[in-house]
Amino acid sequence: KNEVEQSPQNLTAQEGEFITINCSYSVGISALHWLQQHPGGGIVSLFMLSSGKKKHGRLIATINIQEKHSSLHITASHPRDSAVYICAVRSVNTGTASKLTFGTGTRLQVTL
Amino acid sequence: DAGVTQSPTHLIKTRGQQVTLRCSPKSGHDTVSWYQQALGQGPQFIFQYYEEEERQRGNFPDRFSGHQFPNYSSELNVNALLLGDSALYLCASSTGGKDYGYTFGSGTRLTVV
C-alpha cells in the first residue's frame, strides 16, 4: 500500500461543476502539498498545509490531521483547470531533510 | 525573478551511456531536490542537496549521483543507463533544507533507447 493514496484517479467534469479530489496518507506528516501538473511536465505548487483550510481563488484545500486526510476543492470548474493534481506529504521522520512523498495524481478533465 | 530552470528539456540516450542533467534553483533558494517521474506515476525522490552536500537519498542505485555547486545549482548524473531510466526528471528548489516555498522546474524528459 502506498503511503499516499489519491482518489479518484481520473475525473471528468462539465464546466461549472464543483470538484473534490481526496488524499489519504498513512504516515505522520509535518506538511502536505497540493500540486498541479500540466501536460509537458511543469509542476506548480498550489498549497502547503499543516492544519485547517486554505483558499486561493476558486481553489480550497482542507486537511484533517487526526484522520490523515486532505481534500482539494475546485469551485466553478473551467476547462483550463484540466491537469493532474498531485498530493505530496512531508513525513515527520525525514529529519532535517524535506523529502516529499507523492501520490500518483488525479487526472482532471473539464469539458465545455 | 527566474523560477527553477532545468536543462536540457529533452534528451535521448542509448543504453549504457551516461547523462548529466542540470538545475538552477529559484533566486534566493539554496536547496535542490531531484525527483524521477515515470509515465503515469507520481514523482519519486532521488536525493536532496543543501550546502553542497547530499542530505538525504531515496531508494535509487549508486548509478544515480549528484552535485551541488557554490552558486546552489545542481547536477544529476546517471551512469550505465537502462531502458527503465526513461522518465521525466524534476528538480525542485527550496530554502534552508526545508520545503517551504517548494518550486519545481519543468523537468527534463530522458528517453533511453
CA-based shape of chain B? globular
User: Spans of chain B of 5+ residues with little confidence (pLDDT < 50)?
Assistant: none
- The counted number of beta strands of chain A is 11
- Beta-strand portion of chain B reads over 45%
The outline of chain A comes out as: globular
Could you characterize the architecture of this molecule?
The complex is a heterodimer of chains A (112) and B (113). Helices cover 0% and strands 60% of the residues of chain A. With 112 residues, chain A is mainly beta. Chain A is globular, with a radius of gyration of 14 Å. The model of chain A has no long low-confidence stretch (mean pLDDT 90). With 113 residues, chain B is mainly beta. Chain B contains no helices and 11 strands. The A-B interface holds A 4, 31, 33, 35, 40-45, 48, 86, 88, 90, 94-105 and B 31, 33, 35, 37, 40-45, 48, 50, 55-56, 58, 88, 90, 92, 94, 97-107, 109.
List key phrases describing it.
A: 112 residues; mainly beta; five-stranded antiparallel beta sheet; 11 strands; 0% helix; 60% strand; B: 113 residues; seven-stranded mixed beta sheet; four-stranded antiparallel beta sheet
Please give a quick description of this structure:
The complex is a heterodimer of chains A (112) and B (113). Chain A contains no helices and eleven strands.
Helices and strands in order:
The complex is a heterodimer of chains A (112) and B (113).
Chain A: E1 4-7, E2 10-14, E3 19-25, E4 29-37, E5 43-49, E6 52-56, E7 59-64, E8 69-74, E9 83-91, E10 100-102, E11 106-111
Chain B: E1 5-7, E2 10-13, E3 19-24, E4 31-37, E5 44-50, E6 53-57, E7 64-68, E8 74-78, E9 87-94, E10 103-104, E11 108-112
